[in-house]
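ingest -> validate -> predict -> emit
validate: passed (alphabet ok, no gaps, 256 aa)
predict: started
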Amino acid sequence: MELIFRNAIVRKPSRSIIRGLSSSGLGIPVWEVSLEQHSEYVRALESCGLSTGILEPDEDFPDSTFIEDVALCTSECAIITNPGAPSRREETRGMRKVLGAFFDRIEEIIHPATLEAGDVMMVERHFYIGLSGRTNQSGAQQLSAILKKYGFTASTVPLERLLHLKSGASYLGEGNMLLTGELTKRDEFAEYNRIIIPEKESYAANSLWLNGTVLIPEGFPETGALIEDAGYPALPVDVSEFRKIDGGLSCLSLRF
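emit:
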């Protein structure tokens, strides 16, 4: 296995997860079940060759298990974000110390710019930045300037309905990209081999390529078949409790 990703950082779900932000209409997550699913998720990361650092729950922040939103990890630097949801802004506290164990260079998005890394999709050395209710134009501009400093490129993708860019798109490498909903016919992705996820399985567009294997949310067989037809082994992971509060597979970890 060629290791492109070697490390992951996750945060255990807190008991306060029952108060997480949600538009799903799927009910309130059960904390005990979320802990079991989180452990399964960590095992899936490790099966793909990642060494996983596990942070303790933060009861002050119900959504803090979705650690991806508070930092972006690149091959050159880490960038601490400024979440667009006011209740999540302070989730970034302590992240400089956490990331400092791995990165010499740590940048930061400065308020009033907002950016959640669920809106940022890395494709080789280019980064697509979704403009959403959580990430504003100023946040995209600040991130683009930081990335340029380290030799990366970036462009924006305006969103109409999706919570985050990666709610509807996942890059699988080798020019293959999962897309669903409003992103399926966007010119920004015309150069890729577009694997279209049917609307009834749209949640599974947030899948996760890790060192050759694609983690997919459990319960979406058509998506699994499409991914396997594209030449990737698909590993289902149950994240149903996190779906209740608008979270997906990528949201639950920082990977680098």
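The two ends are 16 Å apart (CA to CA).
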